[in-house]
Amino acid sequence: MIPELSQSSVRMKEPERVEQVLSSMRSAGAGTLQVISDFDMTLTRFSYNGKRCPTSHNIMDNSKLISEECKAELKNLLDTYYPIEIDSRRSVEEKLPLMVEWWTKAHELLVQQKISKDSLAVIVRESEAMLRDGYQQFFDHLHQMSVPLLIFSAGVGDVLEEVIRQAGVFHPNVKVFSNYMDFDESGVLQAFKGELIHIYNKREGALLNAEHFKELQSRCNVLLLGDSLGDLNMSDGVMDLENILKIGYLNDKVDERRESYLNSYDIVLEKDETMDVPNAILLYITGQ
Length: 288
Ligand code: TMP
Ligand code: MG
Hints:
CATH class of the largest domain: Alpha Beta
Number of helices: 11
CATH architecture of the largest domain: 3-Layer(aba) Sandwich
Bound molecules: thymidine-5'-phosphate, magnesium ion
CATH topology of the largest domain: Rossmann fold
Shape: globular
Distance between the termini: 12 Å
Radius of gyration: 19 Å
């Protein structure tokens, strides 16, 4: 049906169900589809030539805007909390307060750094951020077919928007829900706006944005892309959902986490740095 689904990086617990959902979505057509995606490590690469790629937070952490002392503290936070984020032996209940702690501490440190709004474009340009191979086709195809792309990110909205803007793919069908910076009158970062979004409250974010989903009411078919189990809740605000197909990138600790990913995502992509599978699925669903 879709040759890309036979690649060795692709795993499915119930391939027949995937086939059924894909057929229903194809029959319903592009006019009924919306795509809901995470950003960091889902639309961006996890690694390149064996080296980890930055998240939207890391783009700032690694930049010249941050003092050496602050860099060391942020690195310390990453080394402490990232292993917890991906630890399959801990429950979400156990991890949740620790993730809030990570985000809160990281944002407090960033706010102390007097980051100017004007410097964001430069730090993104100088960063090693990389969208996954095939991103251009992904964004352009959704735009051409007028399919909305909603990005739910626990990263930094201002930074990730700049990444997609500089890649030339921030088309009008893209809508981002994320943590946005609040700048003072002189354009210096003074806080983060609104409720904190971390990896385990994307559901609340989705429900708070239910008004926005209302506009998408006729779009009852959802293609969801994520890399963390917290990303599975991004579609919770969608009303009158008919079909959902969940694609999960399993980037790290693959053997340990395979089972839990296979139990929650319809299609699991193991150590796959490309958008090939989502692109092939989109071409199929939109009848091309
Ligand atoms: P998301 O991809 O689910 O939106 O989550 C954002 C990622 O950002 C998550 O994997 C953890 C990571 N992160 C950092 O790299 N540095 C930080 O300071 C924080 C708070 C999160
Ligand atoms: Mg992610």
